[in-house]
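Progress note, project year one: complex with adenosine-5'-diphosphate.
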Amino acid sequence: MVAIKLHELSKSFQGPVINQLSLTIPDQQITALIGPSGSGKSTLLNMIAGLTTPDSGQISFDNQPIFDAANHWNQPPAQRHLAMVFQDFALWPHMTVQENVAFALEKHLTKPELTTQVNWALEQVSLIDFRHRYPRELSGGQQQRVALARALATQPDLILFDEALSALDPELRTRLQLEIRALIHDQHLTAIFVTHDR
Ligand code: ADP
Ligand code: MG
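Model obtained:
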């Protein structure tokens, strides 16, 4: 859980994309950001994640600055305790479900800790019985649940969803929306859910 504050955040590429945006995102809730394609949603998530550097403004998590253009302060992405879930799942095709979920963790944990953590995450998304499969052997919805497990396994405070369900058919999208909502609530996480779909 983490409350996020953006203060007069701006980013231009060829032209302005985000212009003096101030916004408070409450903790332990899902906040949806809705806008058409090209409106700067991914740019905003990437700035929160630390993958894109804003031109000006400030970002804080629980009132601790994580980015401050004026003071040249930019906390590295790995220290921001967040995870991202993308539309295209971004799974490694040559790794099993279990290996995909373990991939981000391996540096920090012993083998038994790793197994416990991976199994816990896969249980959260009801995929424990699929742990030895490869992504190509799963449906789109199952692949997205693997991506979600991979995010949960890192025990983040915050999950950023970038059009995460947009590639799925409407029925599956609704079901996963409900699952994600329950998970975010159960784990007391903060989430930002970006979509062009009202
Ligand atoms: P959305 O996610 O809402 O579709 P984006 O944040 O991806 O929008 O893009 C917003 C605008 O910024 C677009 O005009 C896009 O072309 C531009 N843009 C995004 N990332 C870059 C980049 N790395 N280099 C140049 N232009 C970019
Ligand atoms: Mg986008």
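The two ends are 25 Å apart (CA to CA).
The CA atoms of residues 102 and 115 lie 8 Å apart.
No further modelling is planned for this target in the current period.
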